[in-house]
């Protein structure tokens, strides 16, 4: 009998969103007449921008002709996409060969840990996007969990309302630091000064920051940086993840990219410097055949004049939803965070209700689905996440149901 990877047995019994799906399935079986509104999983609902659709149609036609047919894409992505990133307009210089195209930031933030040693110490914000932790559990990097589910080799960085849901610098040494801003799930953002403290810390301690900027398009405050590379010295210590999923509606189309600067280095067991860029390209070229030509052409269209306008309109649509949710819930007497520079609304559960109790309450009384904060980590207990990615009518209806049907 084949031996399994025992580290998988350390994972919670069910991935957060799988558990939500299980509970909803049970509710629908018991209440088939109920019309649920789903504001839990951060999946977009608006169609792809017309510029994207047009580019993809043209690309499909190209695939039908011998002279324009494409097979395997280049290992890091087609040049027509790599050359169209938006870093330069923010005064950031990123070379095209420092960008590696992939099928999603979830994939990349999970797989990036493979290029680091198993004994690297990981620091995670708490609450946190579950993939960051679970992928390191699978790799055997986290040690043993206590009764509360905290692993003894992970450095947890609590993000609480007292500090604007921003983490404090670690007390002890760490090797890998996961940061996501604008933040999923809290909707918080990190100022330039705060981000500089992290870059300075990483440079002093020779740590690597894994910076998930999947939601940068939702930043409204011009003082908030869109990229960690806007901070001096970040190229020496940071890997940045970008995605077309939430900005351009690619959740079902799948395209993203990761930036690994050439000067960013790790070390071998003997202490020799090693290019992390070279390792990431080697990993991807070995385990991934690249994003389809048609999809990359669609992604490139988001950088055209028309594409930019259409993507901005999409983001504006979802941010209006965020405003509707935040103001509606505040009017209902709830304490609400986020929704100003991010598509997530982080709600304090009323009274002494736990996150899962509030989940059940909303489902049963309002037929609205959200995400329990406890699923994002111990510091998420007592909070609840809603997303702005629903349709406008459904979003308005969900808020009205919460205000009129739920006893808060």
Task: Count every helix, treating DSSP H or I runs of 4 or more residues as helices.
Answer: 12
The overall pLDDT average reads 96
Query: What proportion of the residues is helical, as a percent range?
Result: 25-40%
**Which structural class do the helices and strands define?**
alpha/beta
Major beta sheet summary: 7 strands, mixed
Radius of gyration, in Å, reads 21 Å
Unreliable sequence segments: none
Shape: globular
Q: Secondary-structure element order, as H and E? A: HEHHEHEHEEHEEHEEEHHHEEHEEEH
Strand order of the largest sheet: 2-8-7-6-5-3-4
Tell me the fraction of residues in β-strands, as a range: 5-15%
Let me know the number of strands. 15
Distance between the termini: 54 Å
Topology of this structure?
Layout lengths: L15 H15 L6 E2 L11 H13 L16 H4 L16 E4 L2 H7 L10 E5 L3 H9 L15 E5 L17 E5 L11 H14 L2 E5 L25 E6 L1 H4 L7 E4 L5 E3 L5 E3 H12 L5 H8 L4 H27 L4 E3 L5 E5 L6 H12 L1 E2 L1 E2 L10 E5 L4 H14 L3
Parallel strand pairs: 1-13, 3-4, 3-5, 5-6, 6-7
Antiparallel strand pairs: 2-8, 7-8, 9-10, 11-12, 12-15, 14-15
Helix pairs in contact: 2-9, 4-5, 10-12
Features:
15 strands, 4-stranded antiparallel β-sheet, alpha/beta, 408 residues, 34% helix, 7-stranded mixed β-sheet
In short:
It is built from twelve helices and 15 strands. It has 408 residues and is an alpha/beta fold.
Give an account of the 3D structure.
The chain has helices at residues 16-30, 50-62, 79-82, 105-111, 130-138, 192-205, 245-248, 276-287, 293-300, 305-331, 355-366, 392-405, and strands spanning 37-38, 99-102, 122-126, 154-158, 176-180, 208-212, 238-243, 256-259, 265-267, 273-275, 336-338, 344-348, 368-369, 371-372, 383-387. It has a 7-stranded mixed β-sheet with strand order 2-8-7-6-5-3-4, with helices on both faces. A 4-stranded antiparallel β-sheet has the order 11-12-15-14. It has a two-stranded parallel ribbon with strand order 1-13. 34% of the residues lie in helices and 14% in strands. It contains 12 helices and 15 strands. The longest helix has 27 residues, at 305-331.
